[in-house]
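Quick one from the shared queue. A colleague (R.T.) flagged N-formylglutamate amidohydrolase as missing a structural entry in our internal table.

Convert sequence to structure tokens.
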Amino acid sequence: MNKMSIRQILNKIEHEETFHAVVDDYSFSIKIDDYVPYVCAAIHDGHHFDKRLWKKCLHTEYDRWYEEDPATGTMISMLPITIIAHDSRFEYDLNRDPKNAIYETAWGKTLWKTPLSEEEKDSALQKHENFYRVILQLIVKLEELFGTTVFYDLHSYNYKRWDRKVPIFNIGTSNVDQIKYKLAIEQWKEILNKIELPIEQEVSCEINDVFQGNGFFLKYVTANSKNSLVLATEVSKIYCDEETGVVYPEVVHALKDKLKYYIQSHAYRFYDRHHTFDQ
């Protein structure tokens, strides 16, 4: 994997080059092994937290880990186009719009002992902007090549904080065209319902149960594309111990293997149905 500037990454996408890169400030990495009509993103996978912010932050490293989406980048790593965030959402949240991307409070707790400086805020927001410059370039190029794209926006959530039974998978659809993409959404739900995992819980998938799909990533892609769908997909943290931070590699690897197969299968069915839609 090569270190590249945002300009270099944008240029490679424009010229349809395949590459593996980490952006030169190490805020995210992107891999394009082939130009295909689907993208996998793990925008909350990141755990890096600028050392200059440690003493200012009231949350512990575990507090941050608990609210991040650990291992989601690994789960999509076998797919041909991936974009994976490396910075913690506690510095800036890629799933919030720029005006709200820097937390003042986080999950009911004040985040900062002392406010961030304007320089620190500007630095964080520049990384946020750079990420979405790359996303926009991907949207434009893939729709130019294929007429349509489906983005698999993978997240995880803490199921133990709920006082009711919650599904293993949740698809948030409240901000996508649920009529146009009804069949694609239903097929994705059906696929996730059938995934076999080395866990004791029964695998199930629901739509708009624990989350409704209100994230900025989904809204940004939807607003800036002509014929593309974002499937905001949450997996409950059955692949780790929420209370200790121990990750279960056998479950992560099972998810990685299953998602590699099922995302490709779903994406090509989506492409067959939508690539000439409204063209």
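The chain has one domain: 2-274.
Residues 167 and 185 are 16 Å apart (CA to CA).
Added to the table.
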